[in-house]
Amino acid sequence: MTHGKPRRSDATRAAILAAARERFGVDGYERATIRAIAADAGIDPTMVMRYYGNKEKLFAAAADVDLRLPDLMTVPSDQVGTRLAQHFLNRWEHDEAMAALLRAGATNEAAAQRMREILTTQLVPMVAAVCPDPSQAPTRAALVASQVLGAALCRYILRLSPLAEMPPQDITAWLGPTLQRYLRRV
Amino acid sequence: MTHGKPRRSDATRAAILAAARERFGVDGYERATIRAIAADAGIDPTMVMRYYGNKEKLFAAAADVDLRLPDLMTVPSDQVGTRLAQHFLNRWEHDEAMAALLRAGATNEAAAQRMREILTTQLVPMVAAVCPDPSQAPTRAALVASQVLGAALCRYILRLSPLAEMPPQDITAWLGPTLQRYLRRV
DNA sequence: GTCTATAATTCGATAGAC
DNA sequence: GTCTATCGAATTATAGAC
């Protein structure tokens, strides 16, 4: 969301956001401190407050994730499950904001609210486009979320063996048929 | 684990544990305070420290959960998935310690360690008893955990609609085939 | 824009009277 | 066993000098 004129201190703001995503992702909302985030970003803690107002707004900015869901209409209908599993695995591996949101959502109501919004506004419409009966989209999307978030929880947060060490393609092979069923089963 | 002689203040200890399970379950590890737990139990905060030493030990006592897994050997092999889904739904609905452990495990390393122990010592052996190749038990158990924990996360922690409001039997009907595949698919 | 100093809370934990 | 009082540390957030 680029405004008309880029501010001079956008680099500093970006450094703060990167540090915030990492800290919120590793420590969760409560234990991630403004001080630690500022230290990681190499600036003064006061600057964080100046730029983002308070801790809650900083988190909202750090956890403003876009699932970047693919267009499943171009995928053969018997492969949408595997394709979606691939996509989510890739997103989790490369975007720290995903872990930040998940970890914080477990203990912080505002973060949980944001997760519900993201799932409702991004995942549900995509599911509605590929599932047999669009009126079932919220239910099917919630089931997809339950498996995707559960796998991410076990792999990235709890670091449960052997799920934490498995190659992404192995996980995709297991989760693909599950998501396929949640998306398409009549 | 009843010792030889029951102590006089076991009622107080039990009240503390019940309050701790609720607070840890609702607030997570960091935001659940000794003061709030003591207030819920109707006693002095000092007593909590006296009985349990410190916050970490109190949580360990509150989150000492037993999955009470059923003996799936007595269940027809094509129904183990549904039977297991039923069991977990029932456990989540009736034991606050389950939510306490899940919520805390997301932000507290000690709690995550306890979850790994519980899954390794309780779930893996059960899976080994019913899956085709026992050497795959850790992998299959982790997949079962990913779906069960993910569903619990969405339903009880994030309160994601419509999963949060669905009747348990509807959820069982969806998750049963998934768990069946994770347990038995060759 | 940047930093020092500090206000205002809150928490876990302890000492000690009774 | 129970409670009062409090310590010491950590946190978010603000005020204000430069």
Task: Characterise the protein shown here.
The structure is a homodimer of 186-residue chains. Chain A has 186 residues and is mostly helical. Chain A folds into 2 domains: 10-62, Arc Repressor Mutant, subunit A (Orthogonal Bundle), CATH 1.10.10; 72-184, no CATH class. Chain A has helices at 10-31, 34-41, 45-52, 55-62, 80-94, 96-105, 109-130, 137-157, 168-184. The longest helix of chain A is centred in the first third of the chain and has 22 residues, at 10-31. Chain A is elongated and about 55 Å long. The mean pLDDT of chain A is 95. The interface between A and B is large, with 41 and 41 residues. Chain B binds a DNA duplex (18 and 18 nucleotides) through residues 8-9, 12, 33-35, 43-47, 49-50, 54-55.
